[in-house]
Amino acid sequence: MGRDKSVALVEDIENLDQPIIGIFAQKHPSTDDPGPDDLYPVGVAARVLKALKHSSGNYSLILQGLMRIRMENVTGNAPYLRARVTRLDEPKAEDVEAEALSMSLRDIAKQVIQLMPELPREAGSLIDSMNEPGQLADLVAGNLDAPVEEKAVLLETIDTKERIRKVLRLLTRQLEILKMRERINSQIKEEMGKNQREYVLRQQLKAIKEELGEEEGDQGDLDVLEERIAKANLPTEAETVSRKQLKRLRSMQVGSAEYTVVRTYIDWILDIPWSHQTTDNMDIAAVRRVLDEDHSGLDKVKKRIVEYLAVRKLKADKKGPILCLLGPPGVGKTSLGRSIARALGRKFVRVSLGGVHDEVAIRGHRRTYVGALSGQVIQGMKKGNTINPVFMLDEIDKIGHDFRGDPAAALLEVLDPEQNDTFSDHYLEIPYDLSKVMFVATANVGDTIPAPLRDRMEIIEIPGYTRREKLAIVKNHLAPKQIEEHGLKPSQLEIGDGALASIIDSYTREAGVRRLEQQVATVIRGVAVKVAEGDMGPFKIMNEEDLRPYLGPVRFTSEVAERTAEPGVATGLAWTSVGGEILFIEATRMHGTGKMQLTGQLGDVMKESAQAALSYVRTHAKDFNLSEDFLEKSDIHIHIPAGAMPKDGPSAGVTMMTSIVSLMTGIRIRHDVAMTGEITLRGRVLPVGGIKEKILAAHRAGIKRVILPERNVADLDEVPQEIRDSLEFVPVSKMEDVLRNALESPEKLNLDGGADKPAPTVHA
Question: How many helices and strands (H and E) does the chain possess?
C-alpha cells in the first residue's frame, strides 16, 4: 500500500488489537485517487493480521477475508475513505446438486493444478479439505487467471450454486487453454528434440567417417543435396518430386539398394538442365561466315539456317525446327550439325540411332527395373547442359523395331513441335520441355524413314558435291586437317591442285568426300614414314605421277567409250543411296525362239520396263527397218553388270529401249550420251526422280550429253551452274526424240514415220 490515504489508514489502525478494514476493487486501475463511483459495490471485510513497513514508507499487509460486504454510502473521504456497509451472508447449500457441482469443481481444479507447475502441490490437499461449497468456489476463484471484472461478478454472486457454475465456466476455459499450451509445448519439444538428435547423430557419423577416412564429398551429404535442390531453379513439379524423394532418402538405411536407386534418381533430376540456356548469335553475317568457313557448297542448308536465325531474331519464342539432312555418306551431314551449333553459339549433342530397335533407348526404363536409366534424349540433354542445344539424331533411317517396341513411334513425340514441350521419359516421369531444342536428323535414304516421322521433319536434300566443290573442300579443309593429325608441318608437304584433281578423278568415285579424305590420308602417311626415317623434306606432290608411289595405279577410268564401242550397249543414269551412278545396259541376241532373258538382279519394276521396251520395238519394227518376225528365231538377253547389287526403279526404261534398238539395227550409241526416263507402250517418256544426283554422276563419268524427260527440266534449277555449263541437256517427250539424240546414225532409221526416207534394211 503506497497511496497517502492507504498509508494513513494503516497508521491509524496500527495500534488496534484486531483491526478490520473493507476491501473494494477499483474499476479502473489507472485512477490514482478513486472515489465511491470508481469502486465495485461488493467487497470483502478483512482482518489485518500483520503490517510490514518498508524503507520507502510503503506498507505490505497480510489480510484474512471474513465475509462479503456491500457499500451503502460513503461517510468520509479524509484522511481515508469511510463508508457504511451491509453484511452479505450467503445461504448454505447442502443439497445433492451443490455437492455434485463441488465435486466437478474439485476435479477440474486438480487438473488445472497438474497443468500449472508454478502452483504448489499442496494446493490439491487444500481443495480436498474444503467441505463448504461456497468456500471451495471462493478459493478456486481467488486463484483463477481471470480479469478483475469477472472476479467482481463472482464476488457479487451470493447464490452458492450459481457462483460455482460461473467458476466452473471460467475454470473450464482456463483448463482448455492450459491443455492447448501443453500440446503446443510438447510438439515443440518433440520437434526440437528430433532435430537436435538428428544433428548430434549426423555430427557423430561425420566424425566416425573422418576417423575411418571415408568422408564423402558434396554428393554424400544430404544437406548439400537439399541445398542443390533449393538452388536448381526447378519447375514446380520437378521440385516437388525431388523434395519428396529426398525426404524418403533421409529415412532409409544408407547401405540399402533402394537408397542407391532414389539417390541416383535425385542426381538425375538435378543434373538435367531445366532453365539454363545459351544465347543465340543473332549476327546473320557472322553465322554466314562460320558456315562458309566450315563447309563449301551446301547452299540450300546454309540458306535454311539463316532463315531460322532471322525468324528467331524477329520472334524469340519461336519453337525449334526439326530438320532432316538427307544425302549419301560422306557429304558432311554430321559435321554440318557441329557447324550449325558453332554458328548459332549453341552446345552440340549427337545421338546415333543406327540399329536402335528398343523403345527404351528413346524413352528410358521404368525405375522399377534393375539398372534403369533415362533414354538417349534425356541423356543427351544432360551432356549438353542447356535447354536449347543443337541435337543431332544421326542415322534416323536405320532405326529398327521388334517385339520390344518401335523406337520410331517413340520419336514422334520428340520430333513434334506441338507436343515436345511436355516430353515424358519413363525414368524421370516428369514432363520435360524440348521445344527450345533445334533437332537435326540425318539419313541416307528417305524411303526407309517411317511416314509419320518423315511428316514431322523438314527434309533438306544434300545430293553430293561437284568436282570443283570437292577440290575446294580437300584443299581448304581435308588436306590441312590430315597434315595436322599426322604430325606434319604445313611447310613439310605441299599437295598441288593437279594431284588433288587426280585423286578425285582417278582414285575415288563417290558423291561425298569420305573416300577422298582416306586417299589423302594415305598419301600423308607415306610422307610421314619418310619424315620419321629422317628425311625432313620438304615434299611436293604435284601430279598423278607423284601419287603412284603412295596410291598405286589408277583405279577408275572412263569406260564409257570402251563399253559403247559396240551396238547394244547404252549408258543409263541411276539413283542410289550413296548418290548418283552411271548404269551400263547391255543387250545381245542369239539363236532361239523369241524369248527375252534378264540378268543383273533386277527388281519387278525394271523387268516390267524391259518388257515394255521390247513391246515398243516390236510395235515399231517397220520404223526401225526391221522385219515383223525379227524375233521368231532369236532370243534377246539384257544384262546389267554388277549382279551382286539389287537394282530396281523406273529410270532405265528409255535406256533399255535404246539398247534393244541399237542391237537390232546395228547402230552404235554415242559414247558421250547418258539417259534416264520411264517409257510407256505408246512411246511417251515419263519423268523420274533423283535428277540432280544423276547429273552429278554423269559429270563425274565424263558424259557430255544428258537425255532426260521434258517434265524434269524444272529439276535442273537445283544443279550447280558450273555443271549445267559443262553438259548438254536434251529434254524429250517421245521415244523417237531419244533415239534421234542417242544413236550415232539416227538418219538410217525412219523415226519420223515417213516413206520418203528410205533406209537400208537390217535383217534379223
Answer: 27, 20
